[in-house]
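Q: Convert this sequence to structure tokens.
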Amino acid sequence: MSDKVSFLWLMFRRILSIVVGVSTAFVLTHAVAAADTRARDGKYCAIRIGKAPAGQTSPVLAKACSDVSIKAAQATMNTQYRMRMGDQGKVATAGIPIMYWYEHINYNDQGRINAGFAIIEGGDGPCDAAGYRVDTDFWWARNVSSVIGNNHCLIAHVVNRAQNDADDFTINWGERGLWLERFNDNVDHFQIHA
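A:
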């Protein structure tokens, strides 16, 4: 009887280890699949944001990405924006570029590297003293390396992903925004203003 119990116990442990192994593989496969859904939506992104009360994130009015071109991303974003405004009974207004994000330092090596690029448009006009707060998405939080401001957006208050470090960058062409230093590939959000 003892040998039979030992045999059954051994078989139970083997079956249990197989079940645990298969379950672990299943969980890991789905975790990787979930992580893949957070991958870049496309190489080129266009994001239109609105103004927000102090200390809050600017609302995303429309966002589109494309692997084809920045113009394709902008066209899709503009269509989304017009549809959203129409659904709300509002008139769609033109956004203006207020910031550009680059995947690599020195503005993707001044365009010599074909890499991630995003245009951020202000839906409520150029930057003023309050400006806009732009949150990065999962991919950009880990990949933005240089930025340029536009339409009076001269300063970016950059906050890291852990939200325990921040610094102000001048973001005119060729200034401190050409390399985000310790915030390289580590940005939670930008507060951009005049």
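The CA atoms of residues 101 and 147 lie 5 Å apart.
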